[in-house]
Design goal:
By secondary structure, this protein is of the alpha+beta class. Helices cover 23% and strands 32% of the residues. The protein has one domain. The chain is built from 4 helices and 8 strands; from the N terminus they run H-H-E-H-E-E-E-E-E-E-E-H. The longest helix is centred in the N-terminal third of the chain and has 18 residues.
Length: 154
């Protein structure tokens, strides 16, 4: 057996062990795998404050939000901007969410749709409220940078 074959076996074994091990709390892996075709982006590139927010606040509160506007995201090719308003009874603020079109390809998102937001250790999970099926993950910037592609030498 060559050294290259042995390395591949060790890497595959490590990956299999990591996948079989119990996941910690709200792991990126568990949310990403449940998200199916969901995509991800950084919070700073994906979430904007509401137009009436004086400080363009990027904070989001977990809960249900109604889509009040859908448009092409300015200066972002293949990206849709959703304007989300908290469902009545919550103290959350309205905000915009820029989502790659591929994240919305599996299901039509219309004005009036309800989006459920879960706050996670890595950022925010956006899901269809009726099915709780995630379609987009907005990751803390440091988490997002860690997911960047890197050349691996074997």
């Amino acid at each position: 057996m060559s050294i290259a074959s042995l390395r591949r076996i060790l890497i595959l074994s490590a990956l299999a062990t990591a996948c079989a091990a119990p996941a910690w709390g709200d792991s990126v892996a568990s949310s990403a795998s449940s998200a199916g075709s969901a995509s991800s982006g950084s919070i700073s590139d994906s979430i904007g404050g509401s137009s009436n927010s004086s400080n363009n606040d990027r904070r989001v509160t977990a809960g249900d939000y109604q889509v009040i506007d859908i448009a092409q995201a300015p200066a972002k090719l293949d990206t849709t901007r959703l304007t989300l308003r908290p469902v009545a009874g919550t103290a959350a603020q309205a905000f915009t969410l820029d989502v790659p079109n591929r994240a919305l390809a599996a299901r039509t998102m219309g004005s009036g749709a309800i989006v459920h937001v879960n706050e996670r250790v890595y950022g925010y999970e956006f899901a269809y409220a009726d099915t709780k099926q995630p379609f987009f993950l907005a990751l803390q910037d440091d988490w997002y940078r860690e997911l960047g592609s890197r050349k691996v030498a074997i």
